[in-house]
Amino acid sequence: MALSRIWSAFIIVAIVVAGIKCFFFGQSDIFNWMVIGKADDAANPLKLDGVIETCWTAVNICLKLIGIMALFMGFMSIAERAGGIRLLSRIIGPFFARLFPGVPAGHPATGHMVMNFSANLLGLDNAATPFGLKAMESLQELNPDKERASNAQIMFLCLHASGLCLIPVSVIAIRASLNSANPTDIFIPCMIATFAATMAAMLIVSFKQRINLLQRAILAWVLGLSAVIAGLVWYLVRLSTAELQSFSGILSNGLLLLIFLLIVSGALYKKINVFDAFIEGAKGGFETAIRIIPYLVGMLIAISLLRTSGTFDLIINALKSICTAIGADSRFIDGIPTALIRPLSGGGARGMMVDTITTHGADSFAGRLASILQGSSDTTFYVIAVYFGAVNVKDTRYAIGAMLLADLVGVCTAIGLCYLFFG
User: Fold this and answer.
1) CA-CA distances (angstroms) from residue 306 to 322, 352, 415?
2) Span 196-251, pLDDT tens digits
3) What does the DSSP assignment read for 193-221?
4) pTM value surpassing 0.85
5) By CB neighbour count within 10 A (0-12 exposed, 13-18 middle, 19+ buried), where does 208 fall?
6) Domain ranges in the chain?
């Protein structure tokens, strides 16, 4: 119900704003561009896709997901048959048993969630989605009310949407391409901000679900992860931009190939029919990718209407006016569009970051802040639409509120860190 109200509000607000612009400010062609506009049309003053093109974009995203999801779900099917997911579940079990008390010990959902978090941690977005969808399907098996989000599903998605990532390689690469003097200077703020958002998500959901985070197993894992991140930061800050990108590629992609090797080797040792297991899992990947199309289309057209109606511009201008009125520093406002669009669209936020850097400079305060915001959060509403849509959950309960609150913590942390590091 919460998602339904938010989606309806997006559309109503966007159309009302557009109507005011059309009938009171003479922008008579705004309705046309909102519906049939194309971003690459030289005559389009908005330089944004309308709802028709956005529908094509949503379908294209799902079509591209088919191959990726078939690949990873195929390998996960092999791992399941060989017992690899159960082994992973036992290793991480003491921590997850307390954070996800509704998930039985040794259940495959634990292994699926670990694979998803690991892929996110390494910046492997293409791998994280199939693992995450498989985790949601496993958790749905334990869900007594199939149309209402379970506690475990909410905890998983809130942690996933907080976007914990060790190295924001794509952000660093974009900054380097836009002539930043030091493209990696946002690395530490990004890592700290995304870690803060993840911890906030855990605290918020744990409070709501009455989970005691002071248990020994939870503290050990959280402190251990904190120590690993601190050690990695200590090592990576000593690397040059080229060395950092090389290390990241070896770490993330090398580990992914190692996982494939271990899965196939383990399956051969257990005398599993490897190829048949892969094909069986890959079929599920195809079916899931097709099933999420309606949910993705619905969410993306609402986001498109908000952007093309100019609603985001109105919010930014209002924030600047408030800062001016109270005498506060308003430099951070120029980087805020990335934060506003990030929960709605990853591609849109990336484009907004590039636009901010192009306008203000890669090493400007606004450019650095936009980079930190892009590298320290995830696409909350995309996650909600795709992951809950994949398992046909209609009542998301407090998931959206918890995710947005964690996003807010991440944004506030990013702004504070930008002032701390870059003045």
Assistant:
1) 22, 14, 24
2) 888 899 999 999 999 988 888 888 888 888 888 788 778 877 777 677 767 766 77
3) HHHHHHHHHHHHHHHHHT--TTSHHHHHH
4) no
5) middle
6) 2-422
